[in-house]
Amino acid sequence: MDCIQERAEGVVVRVRVQPRSSRNELAGVQQGALKLRLTAPPVEGAANEECLRFLAKLLEVPQTRLRMIKGHKSRQKVVLIADANIESIRLQLQRHGLD
Q1: Which of 15, 26, 75, 86 lies 20 to 30 angstroms, CA to CA, from 50?
Q2: What is the reported pLDDT for 99?
Q3: 65 and 10 in contact (C-beta within 8 Å)?
Q4: CA distance 28 to 66
């Protein structure tokens, strides 16, 4: 999976966000990034907060371990999952239908 990479500090996930959707959902992989549809609008960081909250729930990791490192004002984002193992992240994504 091209959208995730392992680094010394954890796992980095590339995400493409579609704000103001009808529901929060993982919509597959698009352009080398996980596509997330989020209900939150892209106003005052609401979509960024919802992105981190939804990813934490999806990947079953504490939200405190997630940090947005790039793309605060863009649909394309890069999220660091601190102290994560790439295999456990892949397993969680496979459970949600991604290979």
Answers
A1: 86
A2: 74
A3: yes
A4: 20
The whole domain housing 69 covers 4-95
The confidence score (pLDDT) of residue 49 equals 98
Specify the number of domains making up the chain: 1
3-state secondary structure at position 57: helix
CATH number at residue 76: 3.30.1200.10
Q: What tens digit of pLDDT does each residue of 43-73 get?
A: 999 999 999 999 999 999 999 999 999 999 9
Round to whole Å and give the CA distance between 85 and 11.
7
pLDDT(1) > 90: no
**Cα separation of 89 and 58, whole Å?**
10
